[in-house]
UniProtKB/TrEMBL annotation, chains A, B:
Domain HTH tetR-type: from-to ranges: 14-74
Tagged with keyword Repressor: yes
Keywords: DNA-binding, Repressor, Transcription, Transcription regulation
Protein known as: AcrR family transcriptional regulator
Record GO biological process: negative regulation of DNA-templated transcription; response to antibiotic
A GO term, aspect molecular function: transcription cis-regulatory region binding
DNA sequence: ACAGATTCCGTACACCGTACGAGCCCCGCT
DNA sequence: AGCGGGGCTCGTACGGTGTACGGAATCTGT
């Protein structure tokens, strides 16, 4: 009884902002953002709910920190290739990260302050574009467009109930087509049927738009 | 005391799903989606909280219905012009609608079933593209890309603390530039300064990407 | 006039974020 | 050695949430 044992629970070395935020991300991955409550998170860390507030001012700050963890996971554009390959790699990485943390997309809308990892990322992307010969204005346009594409795609993809060609085919035949009578929705009906027949793979969709956007930006290098 | 007066409060003719959903949209516009609670909404309608559950199975269904109200506000692509003008009009309309109902963007991620107005809208867009000569596959690509652009832009714009050129200049000078020391963020610092000097207007950004995407899609008409 | 359906809502329960303040432990000072 | 203070932990409590349940009031058809 004389032994000093401050932490007796599952947690190993005591809390820290880092540990709190990382566990919050893990919990959100597992249960969705709705399943993330301060009490639940504290339980996961083997602590009392109010203990968390020593490391985070409030839940908003926790969510901000979680978003920045997500940004830190996105690969920075490599410096040793042409700008298109670099932007392509970072877009693909961002897509993977957002697929791993789907809750992040719904949080982006509400968080307005960038966070350090977010800023470092923007700096690297802007550097890549400027070095490739884009003007300040064109680099801004390109930055916007690429971000819009990546986040917009993730947003759209998150609200779809299929990810693979097989899942799409199943959903289309069992759910969509019955809901799309040809009299009311001739074109959607035609599309759904034709896409299933052609073995349409929604996972490929990302690259179509990405490559189209990259190609369309190329001629703008060097222009004002 | 013998007079029959069932509804004595501000509400005029009694409840209905329509009235509940419309008032919910109004409340969300006014107070944000966090300010929308069943009790609050009921109060706004001059009713008890539990009365709402006669018209809506649960809050999720209410949110679904609200999203569909938003979709119904988006202009359908006009049929009497070329496809680019039609798509441009509907994109601009969607942007306006989403700016009017910013809460809608954060809801889209979580709602997975389309809703009638959403379906009607997709049918009209697909019809426009197919009639313009896009194949089923290309129309699907174009549909995705345009939606990704519109929703992605709205998502991005919602998380920025400025809308106009003046607000951007103020924020950049008072907030961004002090946070972007030139040693750590040379390119972002340069960009912020140059954009302010050039009178950069973020409201114009929408059209750059939109027109670029439309132009890049044009040559794909008629291809497989 | 009465029966049944429709509409409304008061109460209650489990959960949420978090303000407040009491306890605990460790450290440095006298 | 004793003590005071500061960092950390957390129990309790308050006002909010979504909604299950059951009762009451009204409307409708006979």
């Amino acid at each position: 009884m004389a032994v000093s044992r401050r932490r007796q629970v599952a947690s190993d070395i005591g809390l820290s902002k880092q540990r709190v935020v990382v566990e919050a991300v893990r919990l959100a991955d597992r249960e969705g953002v709705d399943g993330l409550s301060m009490r639940r998170l504290a339980g996961e860390l083997g602590a009392g709910a109010m203990s968390l507030y020593h490391y985070v001012a409030n839940k908003e700050e926790l969510l901000d920190a979680m978003i920045d963890v997500v940004f830190a996971e996105i690969e920075l554009p490599p410096e040793d290739t042409d700008w298109q390959s670099a932007m392509r790699r970072r877009a693909v990485s961002a897509r993977q990260v957002l697929a791993r943390h789907p809750w992040a997309i719904s949080l982006m809308e509400s968080r307005t302050s960038p966070g350090p990892a977010h800023l470092r990322h923007r700096e690297a992307v802007t550097a890549c574009l400027r070095r490739a010969g884009f003007s300040v204005l064109m680099a801004t346009h390109a930055n916007w467009l690429l971000d819009v594409y990546v986040y917009g795609f993730a947003l759209q993809a998150a609200s779809l109930p299929f990810d693979t060609a097989g899942e799409f085919a199943d959903m289309a035949e069992d759910v969509f087509l019955p809901q799309l009578p040809p009299e009311e929705f001739p074109y959607l009906n035609e599309s759904a049927a034709a896409l299933v027949a052609a073995g349409y793979d929604p996972a490929e969709e990302f690259f179509f738009g990405l490559d189209l956007v990259l190609a369309a930006l190329e001629p703008l290098r060097g222009s004002a």
